[in-house]
Amino acid sequence: MSITNPAASFSHGPVAPLPAIMLEPLVRAALLEDLGRAGDITTAAIVPADAVAEVRLRARQEGVLAGLDLARLAFQAMDPEVRFETRLADGARLEAGSEIAIIRGAARGLLTAERTALNFLCHLSGVASATASIVQAIQGTRCRITCTRKTMPGLRAVQKYAVRVGGGSNHRHGLDDAVLIKDNHIAIAGGIVPAVERARAAIGHLVKIELEVDTLRQLEEALALGVDVVLLDNMDHDTLRAAVRMVDGRAITEASGRITPETAPRVAATGVDLMAIGWLTHSARVLDIGLDA
């Protein structure tokens, strides 16, 4: 494997690759979905079984690369002898025309794996690129960007990986690694106090508690209870600024609610520690990457 220009990585330091044991089931499921009951009947009819080809992955627009390991696994699943030579690594800044990888192998395998490889690569590069756009928008502030649990079913691990590649951070990965008490929890529990007290009595000492608040009055109650993180939901900029002053370092502050690259700088300027943005994973536009013969 040859990787050039590692200094072009967008993320803040190296992002550890996900292990193949996590990625292979995703790739196999996607290929099986595409192959259906009879396989790639178009390629089988047109391309000789002994044909060999060389193709190149190229970016067609600028952005941040993510998902290269899934693309490689897709081609290797169809042809274990394929040669996948990378020219860039995940986290690299892409320009239109950037050559990402050269792939050589059985032509049938390359054509059959093409769409699955590109689906993963374009989607995850889109997530990384969207994250990078927000990170750039708030450069120079103390605020960090986080994703949420608003991920596509089955793709959470790789989508959250792509957020890290784009320079963002991850919120909790699931329902089991942190407590996040939201408005419906509070309503059913009968208030903030019983909700927090029940959560604290049930969890281990390493589990943090985050509480969603909509008003400064709720925030005051949350701070009295000593929660670890406060989620400042759908507050206007003046209220966010007042909330940060009220917290005064006693908890981590996280803003959420319809944050865009245009509004992010004003949100970050309020002094919040984090911004939680769900659309990074559930609605990010794909990055256009093609496979050229």
Instruction: Count all strands and give the number.
Output: 12
CATH class designation of the largest domain: Alpha Beta
Strand order of the largest sheet: 6-11-10-9-8-7
The total domain count is 2
At the fourth level of CATH, the homologous superfamily of the largest domain is Aldolase class I
Instruction: Give the overall average pLDDT.
Output: 95
Structural class: alpha/beta
Organism: Bordetella genomosp. 13
InterPro entries: Aldolase_TIM, NadC, NadC/ModD, Nicotinate_pribotase-like_C, Quinolinate_PRibosylTase_N_sf, Quinolinate_PRibosylTrfase_C, Quinolinate_PRibosylTrfase_N
Pfam families: QRPTase_C, QRPTase_N
Family: Belongs to the NadC/ModD family.
Can you offer a commentary on this structure?
Helix 1 (20-35) packs across helix 4 (107-137), helix 3 packs antiparallel against helix 4 and helix 4 (107-137) packs across helix 5. The chain folds into two domains: 20-129 and 286-292, Quinolinate phosphoribosyl transferase, N-terminal domain (Aldehyde Oxidoreductase, domain 3), CATH 3.90.1170; 135-283, Aldolase class I (TIM Barrel, Alpha-Beta Barrel), CATH 3.20.20.70. The protein starts with 19 loop residues before the first helix and ends with a strand. The strands form three sheets. It has a six-stranded parallel sheet. A four-stranded antiparallel sheet has the order 3-5-1-12, covered by helices on one side. It contains eleven helices and twelve strands. The longest helix has 31 residues, at 107-137. Strand 10, helix 10 (264-269) and strand 11 form a beta-alpha-beta unit. The model is unreliable at 1-9 (pLDDT under 50). The chain is an alpha/beta fold and 293 residues long. Helices cover 42% and strands 18% of the residues. This is Probable nicotinate-nucleotide pyrophosphorylase [carboxylating]. Pathway: Cofactor biosynthesis; NAD(+) biosynthesis; nicotinate D-ribonucleotide from quinolinate: step 1/1. It catalyses: nicotinate beta-D-ribonucleotide + CO2 + diphosphate = quinolinate + 5-phospho-alpha-D-ribose 1-diphosphate + 2 H(+). Belongs to the NadC/ModD family. Residues 127-292 form the Quinolinate phosphoribosyl transferase C-terminal domain.
